Amino acid sequence: MSKELIRLRDLTMEFDGERILDAINLYINDHEFLTLLGPSGCGKTTTLRIIGGFLTPTAGTVTFDGKVINDVPPYQRQINTVFQRYALFPHLNVFDNIAFGLRVAKLPKDEINERVNKMLEIVSLKGYGHRSISALSGGQQQRVAIARALVNQPKVLLLDEPLGALDLRLRKDMQNELKRIQQAMGITFIYVTHDQEEALSMSDTVVVMDKGRIQQIGKPEDIYNEPKNAFVADFIGESNILDGVMLSDFKVKFFGRTFTCVDKGFEPNEPVDVVIRPEDIDIVAPEEGHLVGTVTSVTFKGLNYDIIVEFKGFKWLIQTTDFHGVGSTIGIRLNPEDIHIMHKSEYSGMFGDYSSYSAEYDELTEDAGDEEE
Amino acid sequence: MKHLNRIFTILIFIFLYIPMAVLIVASFNVGKDITEFEGFTLMQYAEVFKDRSLLTLLGNSLIVSILASVIATVFGTVAAVGISGLSPRLRKPVMALTNIPMTNPDIVTGVSLSLLFVFIGSQMLGQRNSLTFWTLLIAHITFNLPYVILNVMPKLHQMDKSLTEAAMDLGCTPLQSFFKVTLPEIMPGVISGAIMAFTMSLDDFVISYFVTGLDFITLPVEIYNYTKKQIQPKIYAMFTMLFLLIFVLMVIMNLLQLKNDKKQAKRGGAA
Question: Which end of chain B is more exposed for a tag (fewer CB within 10 A), N or C?
């Protein structure tokens, strides 16, 4: 990729003695779309606000284009922000909101008009210049907020859960829109979200955070396919996580049975976490299966069924397009590439067991507010 | 029950406004006796505008009220911004401290200010007449400040904190962001604070009585002297005008509030 633009070194933040960020190290390249992903309270918004200049870190440095900018105030940074609830100026109309930054910079009137009008076109709000902010829908306000930031041609755009307040349909549209704008204008985007699907579909790089620490950095595919620990495996998509022992390279033992896998480089007989994605599991007749279990619950999800299958007291989530009724006995087969091995971590044993699975419960927790800081 | 409510409301309004009605009627009376309406006339109003000394007094009152309310509004707004920026632990006691002077009896405020002015004037500056226009003005600014802060504070609280951050994000220094974003947002509070301060100043008698010198007398103070003799009917006319002035100001203030509330509701509905 292109050259490095921002680097965070041992970035630490404490509020009233509570550690919000714990020595974050991260670099962000020019033109990159990087997403900070994690549950509420993980420190992602704090990280963004430090980059924006609204918070001064307790320790560590922020480097921008090779210079340390810890003490540079927000109004002197070549960075603009799209705020969580847009923060549009209610006393100004759409045009004046977008022109705000250019007027502060005292640009000539003609140039301001030209740039604002071009921006209105880019965000598909041509002809909306004279509307008052309160007369706009949520999606339109969102686009004004993006235009107001981008019209200043910043090197970096920070976006703090910008789609959080929109409904699902609009959110999908705006995701595509944002990706398009980012590619068209060639600006670095640093995006904060708790929505893993959003992160995977939009980003070049995903940074998974929890408890003020970076859990994993990688391309969306790598984060999904090669999660580093049980937290990442559970937070990104659905995962069955089991205790296993790595006998040797490519050989893992769990449920009293040895499986072939594609992972290597572990200590002999090292205890590990084994991740099996629900959509990777093949259902076969009981006599052909590596494992045999009983279906205990079925939920229709549209594209597929989510079924919970009990194997020797441990419940797995399996996604299948074929219907298997509650109480039926099925066998499963696991191919080597379906099995992913992770080192044990502080998160081992906390995730990946569907014994208390309930579809409704899952939906409730997913949308629980993500107010940070 | 509903009828009873209505009757009570009407009674309360009569109770509140009948003194004003009596005053207004008296101002149009031909005769000097308020117990008997002898005929309608505008003569008393003409008298007001002929009486130089009365006009000077009114002018004095207006000068003090306008200056005091403008200065108090500037200081009060700045103070409110400062207070709202404090940590919650500090903010509450500070707000309590700013509110206490409002509940303090005027006579206590008046006497203590007077003592302070005399002490500073005679002991520290060596003046013979330490009570002047300036002490009056300072006193008025002092008792106006809490009213301004009280009106501006809620507007600052309602304001989305990220607005000032957004302004700074777009290149404003903190000072620029105050004038370009914060001030327009809290303007309704600033205006109602200024109007309230002005009316408080205009009708203040107790504090003014203690802190003003002989060379600068305001209307309420002089009227107190009038009450020792028979009140002239032209005073009724002037009171009526003062009442109308304050009434109009209050209506404006309430309309502003209403307009702002509507805007707020609309904004809330759209988000």
Answer: N
